[in-house]
Amino acid sequence: MTYKHTNSKGTDYYLHSKDVALRSGRRQTIYYFAKSPGLGAVDDIPAGFMVVENQRTGLPILKKK
Questions:
Q1: By C-alpha distance, which of 2, 5, 4, 3 is closest to 54?
Q2: Most buried among 31, 39, 43, 48, by the most CB within 10 A?
Q3: Rounded CA gap, 28 and 20, in Å?
Q4: Does residue 1 surpass a pLDDT of 90?
Q5: How many domains does the chain have?
Q6: Are 34 and 14 in contact (CB under 8 A)?
Q7: CA–CA separation, 11 vs 16, rounded Å?
Q8: What is the pLDDT of residues 10-58, one digit of tens each?
Q9: Residue 14 belongs to what domain range?
Q10: Model pTM greater than 0.85?
């Protein structure tokens, strides 16, 4: 089951992850929210992170604790 966050405006967002290559050649995992579940959807929030919401736009953001 994909992790779903419903913001204060009632819109559902689904957590996704993706491995990217940085300019230095190092690989890093990025996390982002999308309005529909798709390729790269994540089942749960990674350890050490929490979901916060942008007060102006209502977009969820994954932030380190």
A1: 5
A2: 31
A3: 5
A4: no
A5: 1
A6: yes
A7: 16
A8: 999 999 999 999 999 999 999 999 999 999 999 999 999 999 999 999 9
A9: 4-64
A10: yes
